[in-house]
Amino acid sequence: MVEHDALRATRDAYDAAAVQYAQLFTDSLRDAPLDRAMLGAFAEYVGAAGGGRVALGCGPGHVTAHLAGLGLEAFGVDASPAMIELARTAWPELRFDVGTMAATDIPDGTLGGVLSRWSVIHTPPPELPAVLGEFQRVLAPGGHLLICFSATEGPDRPTQSFDHAVALAHRWAPGHLAGLLRAHGLNEVARMVREPGPDDRRRFQEVHLLARKE
């Protein structure tokens, strides 16, 4: 299966790069005020809607820890066992599970929030609807999704592939992805588009899209 092959390749690549990845990105939020602002807004929306647990594709765990520091009951899920081991070592007080975004064991409608912070960039575009369907399934009514991704070069290009340091990756036109979210009952609340900075190697816009399950 295409999905299985892509998932396995991505998992193995991140297992191999886990230590280096953690060294590069564990402190990445420190110099990212717009990212912190969107995470803060996400936390406030989740709290205002009644709170509840928040799950996220966690990598080495630093964003899970950041959300926990904002008062959320956050736990991390990642396909890479090596990433999960690093996260558990760094933050033993938090929960981290090995799992995949397209098929979690989380019961229906039990989460107040889902954070997908560049977690879907390695998902082949034909498989993205299954992942969004899983996000919709696990969110409670009124729950929020914050999904972050790189934008294509224009709205006439719904998706584009690009070379990533770890594994083949994909980017989406913001309007196209927002439409996929609507098709899964996740309506856009807000979006933040960040232009690439002078030191960014890739000249892509970064999109943070906040949506609500109706």
UniProtKB/TrEMBL annotation:
Gene3D superfamilies named among the record's database cross-references: Vaccinia Virus protein VP39
Keyword match Methyltransferase: yes
Highest classification ranks of the organism: Bacteria, Bacillati, Actinomycetota, Actinomycetes, Kitasatosporales
EC class of the enzyme, as a word: transferase
Start and end residues of each Methyltransferase domain: 56-143
InterPro entries in the record: Methyltransf_25, SAM-dependent_MTases_sf
Top-level division of the source organism's lineage: Bacteria
GO molecular function, one term: methyltransferase activity
One Pfam family from the record: Methyltransf_25
Protein name as catalogued: Class I SAM-dependent methyltransferase
Protein's GO biological process: methylation
Alphabetic keyword roster: Methyltransferase, Transferase
Species of the source: Streptomyces castrisilvae
CDD domains assigned to the protein according to its UniProt record, in alphabetical order: AdoMet_MTases
Known EC number: 2.1.-.-
Keyword hit for Manganese: no
Record field: transmembrane: none
